[in-house]
Amino acid sequence: MEDWKQDQKILLYIPISKSINIMKKHLILTAGLAFTSFGQNIKSQSILDEYKKFDINGSSSEVMYAIENDFRQSPNKDFVILKSNEQLKYPLKNERQVQDYIASFNTSLEVAKKDIQMNELIWKAENEIRKYGVNVLSNYALALPSKHITNFLVPAIQRGHELYVDREFQLKLEKNDAKVDQMIVDLTNILYTKGIDLTTANDEAAFNNLFELAHKRIPALGKEEYGVFNKELTKRAYDFIKTNRSDINLLKVKVDNYRKTVKEFDLKLTEFQKNITEEVTTELNNVGESIIKLNKNQNEIFETLDGIQQRITDNNVRIKQLEHEMNGLQNNIGLLKSKQDEHSVLIAQNSFQIDILSGYTFQNLNTNQKIDALAKGHFDNVFQPGEKEKLLKELNEIKTKETIISVASGVEQYSSAIYGGLVNSGILKGEDAVKVGKFMSVVSIVSGAARVYAGDVSGLTSIVSGIGGFSGKPKPSAEMQMLQKMMNFMNERFNRIDENLRRIDSKIDALSETTLDMYKTMSLSFQFSFDQMDRIIWKTDILNKKATMLLFQDYEKCRELTDAWDRIDVKLNTYADYQKYFIQETQQCLQSLSNLPNNNFYFTVATNRYLKDEKEIEYEIKEIYNPTKELFTLYYDKDINNATFSLMFPFNMSSDANKPYYLLSNIASQEIPDQTKALDDLYNFDMINEFVDFSMRLSNYFLIKGGNVNFAPLKLIDYLRDSNKSINNDLVQRRFLKLNDITRSAIAQQSLLAGHLLLDPIYNSLFGYSTDLKTNNLAIKVLNNNKLLATNFSTYLINNNIDMSDRQKVETLMKNALSDEKALADLNSLIGINDILFVVDKNKDKLYLSFERNNQKIKLPVADFNSLFDNKMINTDATYSLSQTQQNINSKLIDLKLPKNFDGKHKNIFKYYYMGDQ
């Protein structure tokens, strides 16, 4: 019935003329699913047989996740039994086995990561450039490869938790050596009396089989609540007998004393089991209490960050309102200046506060710089005294509180073997931090992996939050039951820990959106201030509507489809979902996604007949983009390919704008990929981003289709036996590699517009007494037309020629210079180069940097002071959105590559362990 309701909802958003046919199709499809879906047919042995033969090589973690969810939804236990039997062939019972499992996973992931690079050069270059590059880009470079990949680690994390419980019991038994040894001797004699000689077992498996008989003789050993103790006692007994076999004198208890002896031993063992188990349970609860406290601190910090983020959001609302108001004030300079001043202050506030969010999320409580800057008064012109004190208080609280993240990031640096170093070095300070650190360090064999896959220290908290996820199908182990009791204890005292920890992921998502929106706002602010509102970043309504709606007949179906899915919150969680939501619009959209990447010109601007006659675009291409590109080719004529490739790695600081070129020159041990065509025609970045979003969302349809031309997904059993999986996988990879090339080229073009790799050469041309008139004149034209590049060049000049160490002095002079001739003169006296002067445009009430070359006047806009002082490049918002798109593509490619790289030993093992034992 729920499925039918969903289908009805879908039909509400389909044109009426199509609804009858679609309804018929859905009725047939729903009826078919009722018969063929795995939930109804799991009893079929043929499906299990096909799953045994299923080769994960051509699949992906997302498709496997969907298949597993279909299997797990069935009440039938056949699949659970199948997985359990297969897992017995490769158990994860000890640290060595868990480490082997993780090592194989890590190796496969590293190979998959490297496979997606065009060659080894890109791999080396990206790793090196991340050290210096734009912050938001380097953060995305560590992004989660796939939202489902971490499910491969579930069994390792679970086994790690169980090892922790086992170790706690081992420690307790070791503290009672003499008592335990005597119990083992007594138990050996009791069993020997009944004809069971434990000393005859030559290996652990045989010993365990003999020891099982003890459960029938000693009632205490059969009690489930002491399962972990009994398991550890069995291990201890084997080791004891193996070591002392020659010294053990077996004794038979007299028949008339046997029952009394067994009863006394049972009472003694029961009391001992109870005491040890209660001790471990108490310690687990203590760890739970500490996790509660640390997580409470974490939540308080989150609430603080939520407050900061809300202030950013409120500022953004006001910023947009100011931009709307300023648009009609060009003739009222006084009021316009007032609005612009407020606008600049809000931009600066948001930039500072976003840095706080980014510093916490990605740099582990790195708040010292922000505290120092506020304390020294560097931002007194941005924040009112009350605002400043509030921020300082918040930052100090963030800095000093021990939280789950701060503990996790410390544990990640150490193995369990040197856990003491955490305490001795002072990384773990408080009692709660030490307890939780010990808990995490014992399972630190998975912690490094967990961090890598989550992209920041929060990934490590899967060790804690994972406890709540092992609910048990089949019945959880005794260790996991104890850990679940700990989880229940925490839940009684606090809201679900795992749910609260998931807020970290939402923080990262929100930060990404906030940061990207912030950069876009800063870029738009720059454009407005310097009469470039419709340039540099082109209007979405021109670029997107005209460039995409008319490009390909079926492309609009992707919008119709995804909009309808969003309205009814469609999630493709099971394999059956892909069949359920495959309708005509899905097919038409897939057809478009399949065709478009093969034709680059669909994604470009100048050659597109719907765009080329637009005035703004014509000006942008002829007067800004083409001259900038021509200047670039003149400077890098002998190494244009290497230089173009370097543009794909934009930087944050104007002083570093040429670093990609120098780094690649040093790293270049292999031939640079051919990038000469990357700058030919300007890309429509908005369409690229949208197209990749559609492709990401629907790409699994390409993986699970058969030889059909309509992209209809195969039935589950047919997919399991399908031999085209690898072919489909390769085709999808090629499609995303093509999109990756297009995206990289678009990033290069946006970097070019911002002036990356051009600041040094322009400086050398215009201030190095160059006699190349053609190049010099072109550089002057570019500076006068391309206001974005000109602003970055003025930032470059000012930071190279003015001592900025006294921030307040320079800032005060720049502010007062707009209305005070003496302040302007004092400001110009700071310049270390003879013919550069600050000038004020009275009409705009703006500060510019001015000089003459070749009898031509050059007027460079001066950036806002905070950007200027930080020496920041102003990049287009497209740079950031395209970089996020590139990381999404990389994640998808890693997901597609990963299963192909599992070695032969582990390929099927991963298949049966995926999603753990749930």
From TrEMBL:
This protein's UniProt keywords: Coiled coil
Coiled-coil boundaries: 305-339
Entry keyword Coiled coil: yes
Full protein name: Uncharacterized protein
Originating organism: Chryseobacterium shandongense
